Amino acid sequence: MKEDDKRLNRRDFVKFAGGGVAVGAMALSGWGITELIVDEGPVASWHKSVCRYCGTGCGVMVGKRDGDVVRIRGDVEAHNKGVICIKGSKLAELTKLPNRLSQPKIKKNGRFVEVSWEEAMQLMTGKFQSSIEENGPDSVAFYGSGQLYIEESYTANKLFKAGFGTNNVDGNPRLCMASAAVGYTQTFGKDEPPGAYEDIDHADCFFLIGSNTYECHPPLWERIMIRKKVHPETKIIVVDPRRTMTARHADIHLPVIPGTDMLLLNAMAYEFVRNGWIDKDFIRKHVKFVDGKETVAYEDFARFLEDYAPKKVADTLGITKRQIEEVAYLFANSKATMSMWTMGINQRSQGVFLNNTLNNLHLITGHICRPGATPLSLTGQSNACGGVRDTGSLSHILPNGRLVANEKHRREMEELWNVPEGSIAPNPGYDAVNLFKAMGDEKVKAALIMCTNPAQSMPNLGEVRPAMEKCFLVVAEIFENSETAQYADILLPAALWAEKEGVYGQSERRYQLIEKMIDPPGEARSDFDILVDFANRMGYGDLIAYKTPSECWEEYRKISASSYYNFEGMTRERLKELRGLQWPCPTTDHPGTVRRFTSEDPFVPEGKDVEFYGKPDKRAVVFLRPYIPSNEQLSEEAPIYLTTGRVVEQWHTGTMTDKIPDLREGSGRAHFIMNPVDAAMMDLEDGDLVEVTSQYGTITGQLKLSENETRGTMFASFYDSQFLVNLVVADNYDPVSKEPEYKITAVSVKKATKLEKL
Ligand SMILES: Nc1nc2c(c(=O)[nH]1)N[C@H]1C(S)=C(S)[C@@H](COP(=O)(O)OP(=O)(O)OC[C@H]3O[C@@H](n4cnc5c(=O)[nH]c(N)nc54)[C@H](O)[C@@H]3O)O[C@H]1N2
Ligand SMILES: Nc1nc2c(c(=O)[nH]1)N[C@H]1C(S)=C(S)[C@@H](COP(=O)(O)OP(=O)(O)OC[C@H]3O[C@@H](n4cnc5c(=O)[nH]c(N)nc54)[C@H](O)[C@@H]3O)O[C@H]1N2
Ligand code: SF4
Ligand SMILES: [Mo]
Questions:
Q1: b/e per residue, 371-381, with b = 16+ CB within 10 A?
Q2: Does 260 map to a domain?
């Protein structure tokens, strides 16, 4: 049996064995990624919540009994219509995992000792104060997460930027969504997508590029499958170097060589132009062409595309001219085409250009601002959109679409936050990769890390981990044994998901409230409470005057009213009652906006069907973006591309999922997967221990073989702390979004004799 087939069988087993639940609806997509749990079991009461993990943002119902979370099921009232994936279905087990951190700890002589909150917070405050006094505000930093609640990221951002006066606020969305955020901002003038999941129910062509939707956004994949089932003429196109489960279910799979997609997207545009598959009326009314600096004519765009004729680029892409032409035809000539993409596009040194170019394809064909026709970047983490992009909690942005580098935007925020002019520094802070470099250079001397595990998730760990040792680190964690916790000087015990309250905002601008349902263990506190306490101790009690997430929401909701993100109409009461609301949502009677920039959007003037109001001239931009090859090129020494990503059962660094037996068994230990022909040419066999080396580092792991890996590319996932693949992964990044290119590292592979100690 092939490796992947074995995995699927195990998953089926997991599904049926899991917690004795009955499966109410068989999934269309084969292995039952989705479960409608109908067995009420021992549940005493059901409560509305949101899954903790991914950007799909599934509504879940939490079953409680005797003060414990005992069951989880999908909420049929929510956008996911009751469908959840295997990780979501195990949330009850998450709340019962051992090794929870329940008391603050301080590292003394290399060992952690338990201390009181008072002692931990005093030490933390002292370190931050002395660092700021001696070395200025840019010597401290916050490194946060797209899994913190909106109120938490908002508070950290406000405290550091408006209080301390440093823009050193960044987080893991930099590793994930930064390219999409910059892409939207450049194209439409504002971040966040025009369309929504509902468009899946109207599209008749899906263009999925660099997204393993089947494993990473299963309920959305299920929704695509339902669309296809009801309308069998619907076409699914998947562009991915690997024959993923998503690719295997597609009508057309283009296994492009990693790093070459820009050639494909421009070649598709070439075909649109050559064949006249463009929407001239839409272009005339709503679009302009820009070559990176200047506005240019449509003819310049057409001329630019000539270098990308399918016959010129097919070989470099590793596919045929005919395949490109076919995909271009289907994309342009459908009734409604919907593109979805994730890390295969964002985690690329051309991530922003790729995002621009994907938006281009929709703008020139008019496949936008209509039901089913839209570009929709799928979000990684549960709250990367609401919590980090929308609150402006990255080092170059400010709340609700404002930029640090823009003086007017800084002034607006200073007024809204009621701080003196000049409080917000004009220079963007460090982005993730450079933040850890700055720790290594001892420029950043004290940092607070919350809800993320960079000692495992950052690229080029061989450089990042020693750098972390040089910085005074305060780490707020739920577990005492995460890789990052080991580097902490102070460990703060954090409350998890259902142990605290806050708002999550997922991919489609939908904000949903999570209410507190159970108490955290021991003395653990919510990240929100930790931040408010820290602000007070640092002397910013006036700035962070609110005391509860709900009061914080009141402030932020009102602040949003002065922006195009306006969600003033989303009161806490409405969020409690409803299954989330999509912004813009300016008034308490507003139903929320499914499709932005269309007549249903409150910012589009009456009588207009479409307006790209994010741009001063109301025109979205089609960019002329050239292909620039990755720094990582294959050579005799490094003949294979290592690409990294996810498997359905595991969440990121595995701290939460790898401890749950069904999930751990489902995925197995992390390993390398390679095509059998590549392996044979290197004299390697299934099950061999191999040493994989890049110019960044070496790791040893087990090799498994699968026909589903394309020749020349091998895959590994990063959930296993005993298999730190990021020691090998390159830290090249996009020059504008600064998002690292996790997807492309040139490596050599040879048989290893023994497992290297990590
Ligand atoms: N099960 C699970 N689901 C998750 C997560 C998780 O940890 N586990 N995490 C969430 C988060 S934060 C994120 S960011 C998303 C990520 O969701 P995805 O981006 O869908 O997942 P990845 O596995 O990172 O990468 C997607 C695909 O990109 C392909 N790829 C690699 N290089 C290239 C290239 O050059 N071109 C193209 N076109 N494709 C390429 C890979 O082969 C891979 O199949 O998933 C979210 N959902
Ligand atoms: N090789 C490779 N590496 C990658 C990627 C890739 O595709 N390939 N993808 C990148 C991407 S897109 C992402 S988003 C990152 C994700 O990388 P990380 O954010 O580092 O990974 P997580 O495992 O999600 O880390 C969350 C941490 O927070 C802890 N935690 C959970 N809940 C709470 C809470 O409520 N409060 C606090 N304080 N802590 C909590 C968890 O135990 C865990 O240690 O990984 C990146 N790294
Ligand atoms: S798809 Fe994402 S949000 Fe939905 S249940 Fe799975 S992990 Fe949770
Ligand atoms: Mo992500």
A1: bbbbbbbbbbb
A2: yes
From CA 638, how far away is CA 636, in angstroms rounded? 6
| pLDDT 10s digits, 87-96 | 999 999 999 9
Ligand nearest to the CA of 147: 2
Position 43 in a domain: yes
Residues enclosing ligand 2, CB less than 6 A? 145, 147, 172, 175-176, 343, 347, 380-381, 450-454, 457, 476-479, 482, 494, 496, 527, 644-645, 651-653, 655-656, 718, 725-726, 729, 742
**Terminal-residue alpha carbon distance, the chain:** 31
* Residue 442 · residue 436 · CB < 8 Å: no
Question: 355 and 292: one domain?
Answer: yes
Domain of 472, in residue numbers: 105-170+391-500+517-545
Output the residue whose Cα is nearest ligand 2's atom 27: 452
Q: What is the Å distance from ligand 2's center to 653 Cα?
A: 6
Q: Which ligand is located closest to the Cα atom of residue 649?
A: 1
C-alpha–C-alpha distance, residues 617 and 425, integer Å? 29
**In terms of domains, do 125 and 48 share one?**
no
Report yes or no on 480 lying in a domain: yes
Give yes or no: residues 199 and 269 share one domain. yes
Q: How far is the CA of 53 from the centre of ligand 2 (A)?
A: 10
In a domain, 614, yes or no: no
Count of domains observed in the chain = 4
**Mean predicted confidence (pLDDT) in 339-354:** 98
Give yes or no: residues 347 and 423 share one domain: no
Q: Which atom of ligand 3 is found nearest the CA of 53? A: 7
Question: Is the CB of 501 within 6 Å of ligand 1?
Answer: no
CATH number at 75 reads 2.20.25.90
Q: Which atom of ligand 1 is nearest to the CA of 212?
A: 20
Pair (337, 215) in one structural domain: yes
pTM of the model: 0.96
- CATH label of the domain that carries residue 720: 2.40.40.20
Cβ contact 503:494 at 8 Å:
no
Return the ligand 3 atom nearest residue 80 CA: 4
Query: What number does the ligand 2 atom closest to the CA of 716 have?
Result: 1
Q: Tens digit of pLDDT for each residue in 521-575? A: 999 999 999 999 999 999 999 999 999 999 999 999 999 999 999 999 999 999 9
Q: Residue 689 has which token pair?
A: 């221990």
206 and 284 assigned to the same domain: yes
How far CA 691 is from CA of 380, 684, 704, 741, in Å, comes to 30, 11, 13, 22
Ligand 3 centroid to Cα of residue 366, in Å, is 31
Can you tell me which residue has the tokens 């960019």? Answer: 623
Is the CB of residue 7 below 6 angstroms from any atom belonging to ligand 1?
no
**CATH code of the domain containing 252:** 3.40.228.10
220 Cα nearest atom in ligand 3: 1
pLDDT in tens, 451-509: 999 999 999 999 999 999 999 999 999 999 999 999 999 999 999 999 999 999 999 99
Question: CA–CA separation, 250 vs 503, rounded Å?
Answer: 35
